[in-house]
Amino acid sequence: GQSLEQPSEVTAVEGAIVQINCTYQTSGFYGLSWYQQHDGGAPTFLSYNGLDGLEETGRFSSFLSRSDSYGYLLLQELQMKDSASYFCAVRAPMNTGFQKLVFGTGTRLLVSP
Amino acid sequence: SAVISQKPSRDICQRGTSLTIQCQVDSQVTMMFWYRQQPGQSLTLIATANQGSEATYESGFVIDKFPISRPNLTFSTLTVSNMSPEDSSIYLCSVGPGQGLPFYEQYFGPGTRLTVT
Is the pLDDT of residue B92 over 90? Predict the structure, then answer.
């Protein structure tokens, strides 16, 4: 089976830094991705970690520790537009030899002025 | 990136009927995925569709309820059959990898909001 746990909600103020954690338990692992979804919108790709360590993309960074089955998304210099839901997702193997995304429970981020 | 369109964007259907959702992508892609998402909840994978082969269904989803077609590398359909109110949800099409796209990126369509009465 597969399970990915995230905090349900995180609140922060503009300009702050926030970290969203993700712990996973999956049968097979090819990397951890993060997606952002605004209300009524489609999920959009933010970052991917295939190996342990930190990946940085502008104000967003993502970290992975495969030995701990743990990752996080770090958002810096928060802006109001960052208010959205954030999902971690594991790339897991399929019987067909391809890979699929299994999504976490999701974290709703609320940024206040 | 890949641009994905879905039709219809929303629909209200009566129980016992069926609805077919179309997904069109602007470039050729290897895999197309169908997800279901309840408002405020996570995404649950229904099935994976590759061209020229049977769709692969996740645990809890069956072909009779959610038949899928994948006639070419840019198009797929998902049918929600014999609907009940429990099928009310947002259905999302997703694609990846594709030509010139990173293997780890998936792109999502805008979704189809289905309400079954």
Answer: yes
